[in-house]
## 1
Amino acid sequence: MIAESVRPSEGASSLLAVEELVVHYPVKMPFLQSLLIRDKPVVHAVDGVSFALRPGEILGLVGESGCGKTTVGRAVLRLADPTSGHIRFEGTDITNLREKELRPLRTKIQIIFQDPHASLNPAMSIGRAIGHPLEIHGISDDPEEIRQAVLTIMREVGLTPEELLYDQFPGDLSGGQKQRAVIARAMILRPRLLVADEPVAMLDMSIRARVLELMLDLKARHNLTYLFITHDLATAKFVCDRIAIMYLGRIVEIGPAKEIYADPKHPYTRALLAAIPVPDPTKRGPKVLPRGEVPDAIRPPAGCRFHPRCRSVLPSCGWEGRDFVEFLEERWLDERTAQAEANLGPIDAWNYEGLAARREAPENVAGIPETIRRILESGPPAFAAAVSSIGFEEREIVVRFRRPDDLRPKLVEGRSVECLLY
Amino acid sequence: MAAGETLGVVGETGCGKSTLGKAILGVMPGNAQVRGKILLHGKDLLTLDDESFRQLRGKDIALIFQDPMTRLNPLLKIEDHFIEEIRAHEDVPRDEARARARVALESMGIPESRMRNFPHEFSGGMRQRIMIALALVMRPSVLIADEPTTSLDVIVEAQILEILADLRRAYKMALLLITHNLGIVAEVCDRVAVLYAGKVAETGSVRDIFAKPIHPYTQGLLKSVIHLETKELSSIDGSPPDLVDPPTGCRFHPRCQYAQEICTREVPALVEYREGQSAACHFGKDFV
């Protein structure tokens, strides 16, 4: 279990505790096909995530699209069903509560989505939309009382002149005003925890700061706690007390924002920070970027999920048969190389499963292991070093990799890092 | 724009930056009224008839979009997109077109074995690279890139921007980069034009604009960028205007903290205040 995470005894002092959360989504496929496949594929959206949120803090959940950050946020609100693991709120395990039992909880946890336009019913006036949660949760059925509560919260979030805007519709409002209305609607129930999923990503740069200031202001005034989900490391740095960097369903680094930004430890965190465009033309320079793209979450890489792209990778990080086949494919983009190594090709002849890559041996096998060894030498040193054997098994050429080392989060200089370098 | 130059066009939603790109390419909706001049190698594109424009499009000027799926046909194999594009402009046999497609795709890291795949079988970054390869297969002299990396993650974005910079150098191509991201402008552009409500507020070299912006809008926009060194949040009051009924005079005046009476009345001209740096502000000289 991740070092940052809470033991049950600590769970009581944190507002929210997420423990070993797993959320898998089934892959949609035609019904007949689903009958034929025994091990049905799943998307490993969240694969063992733990963190705790102390009252009054802002925890940033940061990562690229598909890393699972939004799914974590949805699971906290039970909008996504956990496959396993636990979610505790105010010390109560809410993982398996039924909808009826969840109801009272929903007044205490609210969510703000990225797209304010899609979050508001275009046919409902702003005032009604903001007051709607009071009706839904049966907090008030007195129209005048609701109206007064709505006008108060509208003033608080800066939706003024509130009397005028009350009867307007989302279409009449600017993007910034719409997001204020969404925040007002979330705030009217006086929640303790706000899950903010990319709350400013859709807003223009010149007004983003105002919405962030509003959120910080509300937090200070009402002692709110935020789970701030974003892909934008710069915004997270400004807003968050602590941040958790996610990659393919795992938290790879979590700790105080100040320390992580000053000295990122996980190679993925470093890569993310290096990739951000800097708005200063005098600071241009070549970037050291990870190879390729985020792999498919249906079959995440073995070992550390970042290993195929990592610039600091070790032989023990999780190299597998698939890495070998993908390496060949990339190598043979160059036609001359592909021709020179034609006795190993074509790429379609290669298969992989787990730690091994294999293909049917051709008639003449002379020199093949040597060629493979030479090819491996041209890749990252850790890749070649991870190969445990190259040989022939039942008329197949088989390239095998060593088993990856166990990967556990470790406490490194005030934060928890899941990386074998430490 | 000179050959091999990268001009960044920046602005917020609705400032007209995408419309500008579409107008240059002549792909405006039928009810649009396009006036002015668009000169390519000295020839005014607006005087061309539809057929001549069609010949030019893709061959001399190409466009890449934010979303590759607006360019890629989901029912067409990748190689067929290229064959179609090449044969629309040149009378070459399919095999030769396919060979050229292979070279273009391989230069973007897409192996030959994937040429017969359909667009949905590729990742987002790969699709973007395919679209770039497709835009460049005819070696256009001008490439218009409309938010080419906005839907991509930051690492893939950086990869694509490097590819674009390499291509521009290799082909001496003029690149018009339309974006709302000032970080991208700072990293890849030579010059920049800041658009506000359908007009150029300021234009100049990237270094000058970032170091000593003149127009109050440029100043405010640069300050409102949240980056890793941000110590204090800043924003511009109000929101961009409705262009059905734009503000009189300087269109920025309702949001401008320096606005005077003249700003509500007279449209400011774009004046060169420093060598190569022009701004459309009545009080431009006060900010130099």
Note: Chain B touches chain A through 46 residues (CB under 8 Å).
## 2
Amino acid sequence: MRQITSVEKRQYLYSILTVLLFLILIGRFFYLQIYKRTQYLKASEKNRIREVVIEPTRGLFIDRNGEVLVDNHPSYSVYAIPFEIKKADSVLNLAGKILNMKVTEIENVIKRERIGLFTPVKLKRQIDFETLTQIEEYKLDLPGIIYQIEPRRYYPSGVRAPHVFGYLGEINKSELDQSDFLGFRLGDIVGKKGLEKYYENELRGTRGYNYIEVDALGREIRGLKDRPEILPLPGKNFHLTLDAELQRSLEARMDTLRGGVVVVDCTNGAVIALVSKPDYDPEIFTKSISPEIWKSLVDDTTKPLYDRMVQSLYPPGSTYKIILAAAAIELGIIKPDWQAFCPGYTWLGRRKYDCWKPEGHGELDLMGAIEQSCNVYFYKLGLKVDLDNWANFSRYFLFGKSTNIDLIDEKSGFVPDRNYLDQQYGKDRWSKGLILNLSIGQGDLLVTPLQMVRLAMIIANEGLYYPLHLINYMEDPIDETKIFASIDSTRVSGISQKTFKILKQGMFRVCHGEHGTGRAASYRDITVAGKTGTAENPHGEDHAWFIGYAPADAPKIAFCILVENGGSGGKVAAPIAKLIIKNYFYQSRVKRDKI
Amino acid sequence: MIKFSDIKVSGVDYALILVVFILIFIGLIAIYSASFQVESPALKANFSRQILWFFISIIFMLVAIVIPTSAYQVSAYWLYGFAIILLVLTLVLNRGSSIARWITIGPFRFQPAEFAKIGAIIALARYLSYEQRKLTKLKDNAVAFGMVFLPFLLIVKQPDLGTAFIFLAIILPVLFWAGLSTFFLFAITAPAIVMIASFNYYTFFLAMILIAAALLFFRRGLVISLLIMVTNIGVGIVTPILWNHLHDYQKHRILTFLGVEMDPHGLSYQVIQSKVAIGSGGFLGKGLLKGTQTQLRFLPEQHTDFVFSVIGEEFGFIGSLVIIIMFLFLLLRGISIASKVRNRFSGLMVIGAVTTIGFHVIVNIGMTVGMMPVTGLPLPFLSYGGSFLITCMILIGIIINASIRWFRY
């Protein structure tokens, strides 16, 4: 056997070491190219394929006669591709100048919202035409800056109703966490208020996608044959119950006032007009709203962002006397011919309670008391009926319960009862004077105008009511399938037909009686039944109320009018009812029913 | 006494040259593919320029073969001195600029560090080839270390860390070849390995077991063995503590110095894209000009430092394996020649050349698969670049030079 020399020993040692190192390398290649292949293949596909979201067209809002109220216009949004942007400061500087953004601002947006080096990040929404021209002009100096068409809302009909439609805005962090917004990114546009928010999922439609091969610089190389474009599905068009004509004229009539009007079809609960004033121009939210405008809206003491018909609570005043009357008749506490004398005031203990008419109404029965809205009569009646019955009947008429109209943030009001007063003032420590106040719709009782129009509908239908709703049906713009809102009628409990007939008679006399407080509401041959209210409130002048329905004998519409700090319901609110009736029955394109 | 049967290497080693030419040819294909979709005419010209460099480098290789071995030996220190002067000159001429790697003469630009590699190898071979050098003597070892440490420092100054480390990499194998005891090599390399391993309990534990096993193998007496063991455990415990006491910027400086830069959007981006390219190539590859990472330019530096990723993507595991095996063949062949050469000087030169090429190959390919830090070392024969190709061809020339004169001095 040959002796292994020291040279050979070194040769073997060095060779073995080299082979070992190379075996490790080969093992690594085996691991990457064979064991992990699928994963890396996916990664390389993700590199080269850019998924471009194609935004669907948002659904439209259309009035009951087919007039388009809310439409879409194209607008342009500017995006940046992070990878390209970070290569050159000159691009950032120029883009900042054109878009009127600070360079740090652009960098922050990119840092915050980028999901990949090559996925565009939205820098600015709805640039004006001049900006668009500039971007197009400096295109070669702006690699990585692109723009895309994005639908933008516009309002062609002249109907404002900003509280009904709501507005769109950029999705916020908490919305991003909701399951409804899976796959959304900051900068995406969603409904923020009103119907836009309530029906967001149906209005939005389904996104489409386009797949493009891009290179490392984010440049588009070609479309991909193996990944065809997925077309977006447009959102559903919403056919509303609103009547544009009536809405416009009421918005114009209410323009200088604070308050609102709601008109419903009392045969199905469809809202025909819904006005809340003061309001804001819905157009301002179609652009990226500036912080100054937003601040001025929020700080405005007249609260234009607030939907007074849905979100505000008021004392109902004399309109609420109907509830007391209903309780008294239904429970047999009095007959309609029960009489009381009004000298213009009454005493309870050592406190004097005034009627609104200082010289008094004299001897009145129930009909007369409703017609003239006599406080003294109802003070006395309130003491006879007592708090528990009054609170029960308030609930029969659904006060304290929201109407569940398809708008957000609806308030449900408040009906005080014995429990509440005991808690507030100590058990039985409260004065009976509180009952007197509640009898004429004052005190801690709070209602929304929507609840009041529901009351008018319940009386008009003698106990039957429908859910208030703004949507007639939604229609798929592609296959034209329509989905109608379900409107099942419900009957209120605890009140008989007979009682309703008496209430209706009283409310008819409000508008047509010799001394009726609501005589200003009737127009030509259309009979009206209603109830005025003049609600005292801690914020100055009385709120003027008028609720009612027409025609009185075969009710078609019910309405509620509220003018904040307007003064007398009969003088200020009732004339607006006349406008409704005139417009609806004589000028509206709605086919007039045979009367 | 020379026996005929010992003459195994006679004439030119054609297999070696063939492998080198195949490697260069594959490199040209990869460079062609890497420059295929590029709009820039300067980059498009890479392919044809590399062909030109190929022919020029062949001339250098031939010259390196033809020169008598004695000429290398005679001029060794002159070459080394000249290389050091050039390195100093590089720093002086490029004063003020942040990167000082090149000297420009007329239309030519060349990297003195490349020349220094060859100079250091030859000088080191000459110094260690004297039989009277006692590698047990501290002075002789210190001189040898000093010979590579001087160019190392000058190139660190440029700064070009990857290239600088080549000089540290060649010294150990060359000393080993010159007869330095394996035990001594072990004793000086162990603490360095422990330092790196000490940041993880498992690797630290593993390193300790390996060191203990090596000490058992060497049987150098209880006292020395215990001393080495204790020293290494001490190093392993102290290193992480010292490290944690450093400021972030100091850590950053050290990591940068070691070539491990913490830059998620720069270097690691390159490595990620390289791994994606190689991994997505799979077994057979995506095919020539069909690699999306390469053609859409997600792969960085694809004609130079990351040229192997192009091959990994377009020719797959098979292609990678073939090239790795060709490199392995080349290195083993070199080691074999070094061991058969009867002339000590030639053998040391060949080992220096083999180590230089091997270090480049392992660091570069290791980098493309994320096993080595991104240091900017090119891949011999495949990466684009004239100076480096010429260096590599001269190294091959030196190996062949030894192989055809194995018996002579």
Note: The mean pLDDT of chain A is 87.
## 3
Amino acid sequence: MRGQVVVAGIGNTAFGKLPGRSTLSLNIEAIRKALADARVEKSMIDGLFVKFPTSKFEMMYGQKLAEAMGIVPRIGGVWDQGGASNISMMGYAAMAIQAGQCEVAVVCLADNPATGTRQAYEKAWGDDSVFGWFGTPASYAMIARRHMGEFGTTSDQLGAIAIACRKHGANNPNAQLRKPLTLEQYRASRLIAAPLRRDDCCLVSDGAAAVVLMSAARARSLGVEKPVPILGFGQGQTSWEVAQRQDLTSTAAEVSAKTAFAMAGIEPKDIDVAQIYDCFTIAALMTLEAYGFCAKGKGGQFVQDGQIEIGGVLPINTSGGLLSETGMPGLQLVLEGVRQMRGESVNQVRGARKCVVSNQGGIMHTHSTLVLGSE
Amino acid sequence: METKAIDFPRPERDAINSPYWEALERGELTYQSCVSCGHHWLPARSECPDCLSDNWRWERASGGAKLISWVVYHMAYHPAFEERLPYAVAIVELDEGPRLISNVVGSADLESLVIDQRLVLVIEEEHGVAIPRFKPIS
């Protein structure tokens, strides 16, 4: 399947606070722009793969969106793997296209937790609330602390990830937080659940993104201007809650990347630029290890000294990532991967020909990986 | 630990987990042990997560444990925990194998703990809930 399906178009809304906008409205804006980018009519969409809004659970949301768009897709629905859903759905859409189940697929995501609802986040924390165990940052902090204890990873090394993302985001006109971060500012950032600080945690954002997929042959016949081939994809699921996970510093990101790299027929060293899911700094650090860009436990050293910034050995999150561009769970990273392969990023890595994108959900419960190429 | 009485969270007891909370009220920390395969686990489940058998029993833990990881809250997510900031929540592994979320108490410097250090059970009653916590063994 390598290279048989392409990303033909991308679209997104503004990111940040978008009061008064429903997730249907945000999705439609992103899809409208993605269709325009691909120069495809909405009537051609026969696959609609939707990440349910993380901010609110709704039954049959995919059908609500199809109705609001006036389309009747042959295949699709709503997928729940948290932030891993986007790339997972792109994989399913690609397989559906190759299997003749649809010809033009849209994968999209919209969320409005900043000004709309956070209903889905306001879950009960169960019986462990008697210990004062609340909040997503604390779960990632548990993993970060164990990583520090096992491998000597430091807070400053986590900070290097936030600094890189903020530096890249500052140069992105559509980023929600365009404020570079110094190491001194990072060290002064308030502790949320130690060892994690405010600046280790992603933004809370309204917004939407969408991609249009079709076969490479179809893109040629339609005259799509800048198709970006999908070289590989993969998934992995850690599943266990943090407290039950026998090895806190290993995740299914590893098997996910192995699957995607094998499909693409490449190795980590072939990657020129990476978009790594950075809901929390520790997640990005461990993903870089799991993907094989460095040995397990060496992620702290790998991210130091500007090595993941533009001009470094592996620039990551060139539009700012979840820490700077938008905290929206994941599809924006795919859009930036596509821009890098088209040569259109505001932080373009010169000559970049291969980009890997990671998505993950929950507390590293789910993972998905996408490898994009340039034509 | 002292705390505001307001809305202190209470465990939701059901047919499966009631024996766990009742044992704590008697001063015992218990875990589930599979009769079919010998696997030990917490929290309470209706089937063994290893062999899927529903033939299991409750057993009493010795109270010995080790610290897998811990965090120190500097921000309260619930009003009942505002006055105890900063406080530590930990992942603890019992000597018998099961892991649970708990608190580390009795340590003056919560940042000086180390992973895998030895801990011992201390059951503390708070707002009518018997809570299994752990303190470091020096």
Note: Chain A touches chain B at residues 125-135, 138, 141-143, 145-146, 149-150, 190-196, 242-244, 248 (CB under 8 Å).
